[in-house]
Structure formats: C-alpha cells, structure tokens
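Support case: NAP complex. Customer-provided input:
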Amino acid sequence: MPSDSDTRALGRTGIRVLPLGIGTNKWRGADPAAVRETYRTVMATGPCMIDTAEVYRSERVVGDCLRADPGPAIIATKFAPLPGRTSSRRLMRGLEASLARLGVRTIDLYYVHFPLPWVDVRVFGDGLIEAVKSGKARAVGVANFSADQMRRIADHLAKAGIPLAANQVNYSLLKRKPETNGVLDACRELDVALVAYFPLASGHLTQQSDRDRTRALLALLAEIARAHDASISEVALNWLVARDPHVIPIPGATKPHHAKTILTALGWHLSEAEFDAIDRASANRQ
Ligand SMILES: NC(=O)c1ccc[n+]([C@@H]2O[C@H](COP(=O)([O-])OP(=O)(O)OC[C@H]3O[C@@H](n4cnc5c(N)ncnc54)[C@H](OP(=O)(O)O)[C@@H]3O)[C@@H](O)[C@H]2O)c1
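Agent response - structure generated as follows:
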C-alpha cells in the first residue's frame, strides 16, 4: 500500500491518489487486450485515478476492467452540460447513466465537463451537491473552468459543506496558461487539485522533433532524459508533478508499455537546476 508521501490529496476530500492518473479518451476503439493490460499495469502501482467521461464513450470499457479487477482504482467521470442539459435533474440522470455503464454504485469523482457561459455555475453546483448528498458521488469537481468560475462554484459547494475536489484543465510544458490565468493560484488558495489533461501535449512531448517551435525544448528534455536513463515523456510529466503538489497530470495511454513508462516518472526526481532549465526553455507557452 503506498504511503501518504507516495500519493496526493484530491483537494480537501480526504481521497488520495497517485500523483499521475491515466486518461481513457482513446480506450474505446483501442485494442481491448492492450487496454486491459494497461489497466492492470496501472492498478499494480496503487490508487491511480482513471479518467473517463460520458462523451469519451469509454465508460463501458473502464467498467469491464473494473469488473475483472476493481483494484485500488479511483474512478472519475464527467457530465457534459450540453445545451438543454442544464439542471440538477439532468445532471443526476447523466450520473446515473454513467454509474450504470461503469457498473458501480458510487463514482469517486464527478465533474462538470465544461462551463456554459450563459448558465450560472450555481445551477451545476446544485447538481453536484445532490450527487454527493445522494451518495452517488464521493467527491465533485469541474473541468475547463476559469479561476473566477471555479471560485464561484467552490463558494456555492462550501455552503453545503462540500469541498471542490478538482479543476481539470489543459496544462503541459507546451501549454502553461494555468500559471498565468489564475487557475493554478486559485487551486493553491482553495486547496483544489489541478488535474492536468493533455500533459504530453497529445504526444508532442514524447519524442524529439524538428518543428521549430518545440525543437529546443525537446532537445533539452532528451538530454535530461539521457542523464536519468529515462524517456522524454517521463521528464515532461516529472516536471509537472514537481511544479506544485496540487498538480495531478492524467496522460492518456492505450498501451501497457506506455503506462509503465508513465508510472516510472514517479520513481525519480529532477534536480533543481534541471527543473529551472526546463522552466526557462518552456516559458511563455500559452
Ligand atoms: N477535461 C477535458 O476537457 C479533457 C479534454 C481532453 C482530454 N482530457 C483527458 O486527458 C487525457 C489525456 O489526453 P490525451 O491522451 O489526448 O493527451 P496526452 O496525455 O497529452 O497524450 C497522450 C498520447 O501520448 C502517447 N503516450 C503516452 N505515454 C507515452 C509514452 N510513454 N511514450 C510515447 N507516447 C506516449 C499516447 O499513446 P497511446 O495511446 O498509444 O498509449 C497518446 O497518443 C484524456 O485521456 C482525457 O481523459 C480531458
């Protein structure tokens, strides 16, 4: 069983997860045997967050993995607030359908997938409160919310005694906007996890490239990777994990050897000089 120092807090929910989760938006359509082995590889490491969403259509695949071996998985899924789906009732119906596809009675973390600018965040806040009070969600979060939207929904949830667990946003060495748009600051201040999606920039941070925009950064990552007998992707994930204890990247993987490499990133640390050099080489990437 991993100790507290091997895991990260999911905000103030009391739930602890490995500092790296796994994204499943490509699990539907991928080789089923490879996906099952990817899941088993991840579960052997500890309480890894498995990230899905109703719109990824991968909940049934995740459910099949869970039925074969529940392991210590922490499962997160998301409600898509598409136009016409903007009430607590619709959110609860979405949650119940996700639970059925996953084959579980309670989800560990239920997100609102994105904000709708013309709908008050408190409408979704009410749905999330009901999700927790009904016992169908252990914790609740948001995705793609601005710092201001996040503060408003956190405030609304707090009135019902429920902490906002996470804001899931696009964050990587090629997309550092959360550091400048107030989201990382709000996560620190409110003690909310910043779950980083596209942490490998959809695969662009996994191998060297001749593209002008990324060549120098990738060459540096490769040099640091060689010094640690590691891969470029491990260095890129290592940097995010070291950036702040609130950050939990969720790289996507459909292949067991990719999952293994990803999780090896948890076994070593960048030096301060290496961290700073990467910081400088990737600065101003929005
Ligand atoms: N909340 C949102 O709005 C939102 C939006 C988009 C995504 N997400 C979440 O974020 C997750 C991650 O997104 P993503 O998968 O598109 O992007 P990503 O994590 O930046 O990149 C994943 C890509 O890198 C490859 N990869 C992984 N480990 C590797 C390794 N060790 N060596 C070489 N290549 C490696 C994967 O290949 P293989 O698949 O071949 O293993 C995949 O093609 C999604 O699964 C989803 O859960 C959330």
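The chain has eleven helices and ten strands.

Case will auto-close in a few days if no follow-up is received.
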